[in-house]
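Service request form, structural biology core

Requester: graduate student, group of Dr. S.
Request type: structure prediction, single chain
Budget code: on file
Notes: please return the result as structure tokens.

Sequence provided:
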Amino acid sequence: MGNTRTPQSESFKPCHALAVAVEAAETAGRLLRQHWRTPKKINESQAHDLKLELDVRCQRQITRRLRQAFPEIALLGEEGTAGDDTAPLRWVVDPIDGTVNYAYQIPHACVSIALQHRKVPLQPGKTSAPYQTLAGVVHDPFCQETWSAVRGHPARLNNRIIHVSARSRLSEAVVSVGFAKYDANLRHMLPGFQNLVPRARKVRIMGSAALDLVYVACGRMDAYVEAGVRLWDIAAGGLILECAGGDFFHRPLSGDLCYYVLANNGRLRGCLQRLCGSPSSNNNS
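Core staff response, request fulfilled:
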């Protein structure tokens, strides 16, 4: 542990943290591929979601690597937390984004890891403060693709600089739509979906928010809309989209770390807002 870099040390830089996060994401991706065709143990089953035992194993593996390298950085993950939650930096981890796809052997799932810092110090008596994402990685182990970014630098796919598309007409755009597990958000998204289908070139339902975001970042798709998505689904991909020149419009909804997202290439937000609307802040029940 003598060479460990911490947030307080002069040698700490987001690019160093990103390199460790990429390593952790790719290692977890190998575990996903290794168990791709084996029977999956389901820890929890809901109407529109699954929790696998492998989610927990992947996050445990990721946590071990990140905490080994940076023990003073806290971790917030879909499968739990680690470290001091008052620390100025935190990892935000989704060990398998697209769990239902993965469980059904649909090869469209990924590992998502973001590094965030508090924008303002935590005040005495307060339990939260706004965060900003500094670095992020999204790794697709099935296509062997790794998207990454550090704030203020270009986004990359397998180390090549990427950029959003230049399409400005919805009639030429491919738009991904997500349907979260909350009934109220499903009811909100359905009219928007019906409005989009006859107007966009294609509307897709892919099943992984992180991959939706990075697909917009590299120009494969032009926008992504979902209400009720969680922070660990979007933290890394949102930064990557911004660093690729895109518009990561998002706002919090009621519920724990829940968001409405209207991500796009920077040219489509207005028309998408008119067609899809915006859910109320209590739209998670």
